[in-house]
Specification:
320 residues, alpha+beta, Ribosomal Protein S5, domain 2, Alpha-Beta Plaits, 18% strand, globular
């Protein structure tokens, strides 16, 4: 197990919530945080309490995987007995990915377990087929649903592939490259730390409840989905100006219609970004806490601004 793979966190640049009713989604791996499967032993420097808690969480997830296997619902064969034995021997997920911060902590774990314990797993390689990508997404969606009640499967997929992916029409997944064209040295994508974790499941339930209202459903279908799709298309085609134009609309939409997902202390900064155009904020994952995602064309100015507010910001993408 010492050679176990390391799984990076992820950042969904565009598509949180809107992928549920069918928008595109664009997700990139983020190596600033990562995790790997390990065994608790006396020779390794580890937070023992963290390891024990992680081991207990693995037991719960293993029971869930076992029940899916027993009901013949899981779309892959899983070596549950080996996983069970390893958990008994102190298996845990050593991770720096903060939980509840929108960076795919559960996705990284699901990817790690699949690669280690699935029987004849699909390999993450350049020649992976569309059919294999779709199957992986289904498997990951099934397992990760344990954490969030519902899952698109995208988070574990990005952690598994370690490559940017775009999701089209709910099931079509494609590995993509983010073009460097039009990107300046002062441009950056960054995370803003709200200082407290968020909880995904209740917020997803809230969104689904709101979608039952025809007015809200129309807003999402006629405004949010097209804005999200255009943002992704603009970024992938290297049209940075158009991306920022769509991003402004997205930021405005989320401020108006996703109030509960934006921590109160972030509201003034969110509005300030829209007023000054120095930066634009959007949700990172389900929101409610954790990180918010920022985009700017003047990173040095934004760094100083957030420093004054005593808020930590971490670059996700920055030209060297």
């Amino acid at each position: 197990m010492s050679n176990s793979n390391i799984y990076h966190s992820k950042v969904m640049l565009f598509g949180e919530y809107s992928i549920i009713p069918g928008s595109m989604g664009l997700t990139i791996p983020y190596s600033h945080f990562s995790g790997e499967l390990r065994f608790l032993n006396k020779n390794s420097y580890t937070d023992v309490d963290f390891a024990k808690h992680s081991n207990y969480q693995l037991k719960e997830l293993m029971t869930y995987i076992e029940s899916l296997t027993f009901k013949k619902q899981l779309q892959c064969s899983f070596n549950v007995d080996e996983l069970k034995q390893d958990i008994e021997n102190g298996l845990f997920f050593e991770s720096t990915i903060p939980e509840g911060y929108g960076l795919g902590s559960s996705g990284a774990l699901v990817a790690a377990l699949y690669e280690r314990y699935a029987i004849n797993p699909i390999k993450a390689c350049k020649t992976i087929s569309k059919r294999e990508l779709a199957k992986l997404k289904t498997i990951f969606s099934q397992i990760e649903s344990f954490y969030h009640g519902t899952s698109s499967g995208i988070d574990p997929l990005i952690c598994f592939l370690k490559h940017p992916i775009v999701l089209k029409e709910k099931s079509k997944v494609k590995a993509v490259k983010i073009p460097q064209k039009g990107i300046q040295k002062s441009d950056a994508i960054f995370l803003v730390n709200t200082g407290k974790p968020g909880k995904t499941e209740p917020l997803v339930k809230l969104f689904l409840k709101k979608m039952e209202s025809s007015g809200y459903f129309k807003k999402v279908s006629n405004e949010l989905i097209p804005i999200t799709n255009k943002s992704i298309e603009a970024l992938l085609s290297g049209d940075i100006q158009e991306m920022f134009s769509q991003l402004r609309k997205l930021s405005e939409f989320q401020l108006e219609h996703f109030q509960e997902m934006i921590p109160e202390m972030i509201h003034p900064l969110w509005k300030k970004g829209l007023q000054t155009s120095d930066y634009l904020l959007k949700l990172c994952g389900s929101g409610g806490g954790g990180y918010m995602l920022g985009f700017t064309r003047n990173f040095s100015k934004v760094k100083e601004l957030f420093k004054k507010h005593q808020l930590e910001i971490i670059p996700v993408f920055k030209q060297s």
